[in-house]
Amino acid sequence: MYTDYVNKMGNMEHNLQISNITVSVAGKQIITDLSLTVPPGAIVGLMGPNGSGKTSLAYALAGHPRYTIDAGKCSVAGTDITQLPPDQRARAGLLLTFQHPPEVPGVSIRTFFHEAYRALYGTTPWIIIERRLRNSFTFVGLPESFVERKLHEGFSGGEKKRLEAAQLLFFKPQCAIVDELDAGLDVDALIWMRKLFDACRVENPNFSALVITHAPEVMERLQPDHLYIMRAGKIHAQGGPPLLAQVKSAGYEAVL
């Protein structure tokens, strides 16, 4: 698997290419000169202790207004997204699943999915979108009646995560940034997550994901093609399965 990743690195048009970016929040620099690559079809892990800047990186890439990319460049499938607004980053093929999805009172799940899909792909018959929505919910184990509920309002942690997972199948992104999708899910669901990524590749063979977590057990279940270790806003190590085994057995301090 790691050999496949190395071979994919020869493809110059990566699904996600981050080159020497510096990120700040309210004038405070939190990420410094960070670079990483997610080739087409790859599952790449980003790990590190809590507070290392992993979620901040995800927000900066998605275009959160509080997170400013002060230097460097980010591209998705060859499109420079560094200064694009969030909706144009999504149209370029980027999707962020949140660690803590916010509640949106008054907006039904059906309305959210339908309107967001049309914003990305243009006018689409209602029945086609509804069929995609139904299939996505079935895969992640959400009842069909769920579409009538308000977005994330009163949801359990597991329900929020399954709804985030459904978006991976539904919106068919080129590259997904998956932030702590395991939070609130049981061990069986971690196995199901790998099947979810495989299903996304059926829809789009070039689908790739940058999976963010601090838990080695999650990465062990997912078996990523490559792994980056982050601390204090910088990448400190990267590699294949031996690096993951080292983190699990000895902890972050031994690796870093």
Description:
- The protein has 256 residues and is of the alpha/beta class.
- The chain has one domain (2-255): P-loop containing nucleotide triphosphate hydrolases (Rossmann fold, 3-Layer(aba) Sandwich).
- The protein is built from ten helices and twelve strands.
- It has a six-stranded mixed β-sheet with strand order 6-9-10-3-11-12, sandwiched between helices. A four-stranded antiparallel β-sheet has the order 2-1-4-5.
- A hairpin with a 2-residue loop joins strand 11 (226-231) and strand 12 (234-239).
- The radius of gyration is 18 Å and the shape is globular.
- The two termini are 24 Å apart.
- The model has no long low-confidence stretch (mean pLDDT 89).
